[in-house]
Design brief:
- The protein is built from 13 helices and nine strands.
- It is α/β, with parallel strands linked by helices.
- The protein folds into two domains: about 150 residues, Glucose-6-phosphate isomerase like protein, domain 1 (Rossmann fold, 3-Layer(aba) Sandwich); about 150 residues, Rossmann fold (3-Layer(aba) Sandwich), CATH 3.40.50.10490.
- A five-stranded parallel β-sheet has the order 2-1-3-4-5, with helices on both faces. A four-stranded parallel β-sheet has the order 7-6-8-9.
- Helix 3 runs antiparallel to helix 9.
- It starts with a helix and ends with a helix.
Length: about 325
């Protein structure tokens, strides 16, 4: 099996990786978390675990900052595995120009250099991996940063996530591995649509999509319930000949809103004759971080198994790297 497959079994250890805590005073206002790709995913997962009900935590996946960040005196948490993500770097630079508090979560690069130069709080993560394969390290670091800002009570969510993953992965033949293999087989030759309920299942569905894109080098898409019932659902009415090349996977969170639960039931019935239902994954655990990982890890397994069935190395992403190189050359 590939190295990327091995990385999946490192997730519990990544979530348990000791991280230096930072304490940032005078930052009781809103928080903006910056991040793209695997780092943006980690920021969004960490945001799921916010325990202060009065704290606004927004995830920004683009250049600069949200228009309101300066006036609101938001605290910025910049998550960039390489430290060189140009969108995230631009947000850090803008935040410094506005005199905002910035916490850096990175393994190095330009953001680490800025943190050293400007005396910014820095939460370091181990280097040397693909960002998507270091999602556990980054979630642990981002959650620790949020704890230092008072938005998270403690780090118990990380241990629960690690414990749930231990149970699901087992010694290599746990239920997540078995189900992931089954779903990889069901997805063979198909473009999957991954559906999950807002917020946990929807975020996990997006992780599935991006893992299929990068590991399997195939298209996929994800959508959230209930939003997709207001638009995308109608599109299946004309599926026709697409039945042989598409399929739907449902990610069901134990804490889905009761009406979301009903929507899934009705969707499955409505689409029975329109598009193949490839399978369903049910979340495990109590907290949102653990529930996210319990859904996402099945997609991690499925994407790598599907890649290996196709004879594709899941680790390198040459098209993305070439795109980044051309983008840099155009500066």
């Amino acid at each position: 099996m590939s190295e990327m497959f091995d990385r999946i079994f490192e997730l519990p250890a990544q979530l348990r990786h000791p991280v230096d805590r930072v304490a940032v005073r005078g930052t009781e206002g809103p928080i903006v978390m910056l991040g793209m790709g695997g780092s943006g995913m980690a920021a969004a997962v960490a945001a799921l675990g916010v325990t202060d009900p009065g704290r606004i935590v927004a995830v920004h996946r683009s250049y600069g900052l949200p228009a309101w960040a300066g006036a609101a005196r938001a605290t910025i948490v910049a998550v960039s595995y390489s430290g060189n993500t140009e969108e995230t770097v631009s947000g850090v630079v803008e935040a410094l120009e506005l005199g905002l508090t910035v916490v850096a979560v990175t393994s190095g690069g330009r953001i680490a250099a800025l943190a050293e130069r400007e005396g910014l709080p820095l939460v370091e993560v181990p280097a040397g991996l693909q960002p998507r394969a270091a999602v556990g390290y980054q979630v642990a670091a981002a959650t620790t940063a949020l704890e230092g800002l008072g938005a998270v009570d403690d780090l118990g969510a990380l241990e629960e996530g690690a414990r749930v993953l231990d149970e699901l992965l087992g010694d290599g033949s746990g239920p997540a591995v078995t189900l992931g293999r089954d779903l990889a087989e069901a997805m063979e030759g198909r473009v999957p649509a991954i559906y999950g309920g807002f917020p946990v299942g929807g975020l996990a569905a997006y992780r599935w999509k991006t893992q299929i894109n990068e590991n399997t080098k195939r298209p996929a898409w994800s959508s959230e319930v209930p939003e997709l019932d207001h638009n995308e659902l109608q599109g299946w009415d004309a599926a026709g000949d697409l039945r042989d090349v598409v399929g739907v996977v449902h990610l069901r969170d134990a804490h889905d809103h009761p009406r979301v639960v009903r929507r899934f039931e009705l969707m499955e019935a409505a689409l029975r004759d329109e598009v193949p239902h490839l399978g369903t994954v049910h979340s495990q655990g109590d907290g949102p971080v653990a529930r996210f990982f319990s859904l996402a890890v099945v997609g991690d397994v499925a994407s790598v198994v599907a890649a290996e069935a196709l004879g594709v190395d899941p680790e390198p992403v040459p098209l993305l790297e070439d795109f980044k190189r051309r983008l840099k050359e155009s500066e």
